[in-house]
Amino acid sequence: MPEFEPLSLRGKLVTLEPLSIEHHDGLVEAASDGELWNLWYTSVPRPEAMAAEIQKRLKLQAEGSMLPFTTRLNDPQTGEPGKIIGMTTYCDIDLSVPKVEIGYTWNAASAHGTGTNAESKRLLLTHAFEQMNCEAVVFCTHWMNQQSRAAISRLGAKQDGVLRAHTRMADGSLRDTVVFSILVAEWPQVRNELDRRLNRY
């Protein structure tokens, strides 16, 4: 089983590149686009907490449980990666199955509905299933995050269940976590539907 190592994944719309502390200012600007930290059921860092969030993700990467990415919007003329629009990760990496979760994802409000999230997932799923030989890819989200739940369902992931009072949020409230997954046998049809959707962009 190969290890999950830092790498860049480039599509038509976006490029996912290894998270770096040098991305701090661009990530603050992206999170400020829509003031995403005000959505209480998400964990988007406030500007003053962004540096600590980057360091936390890099620490988990060093421990082998996370592979964090910065999402950049590609220049429509050159195709080269440009403006930072958000973050995403491989997390809860389990090489014994193998399986992985795609999570801790957020994108600037202006990027919503542009196909960038779908292509990010297409890139991550392709690498997980076709290069890392994963048996399953998992997605988790807050019960109250209807936008995220709908987006995960549109990917073709199936809901496995709800973990009640699963974890405590920063505000002290308890989160009910909705768990979805895609199995390797389902990947071809999920990939076909993602490609159909992305052809619109």
TrEMBL record:
Q: Name one Pfam family in it.
A: Acetyltransf_3
The organism sits in which domain of life?
Bacteria
What UniProt keywords are attached to this protein's entry? Answer: Transferase
Q: Which GO terms describe its molecular function?
A: acyltransferase activity, transferring groups other than amino-acyl groups
| Membrane spanning residue stretches | none
Transferase as a keyword of this entry, yes or no, is yes
Q: Where would I find the N-acetyltransferase domain in this sequence? A: 14-158
Query: Could you confirm whether the keyword Cytoplasm appears in this record?
Result: no
Name this polypeptide is given: GCN5 family N-acetyltransferase
Q: Which organism is it from?
A: Glutamicibacter uratoxydans (Arthrobacter uratoxydans)
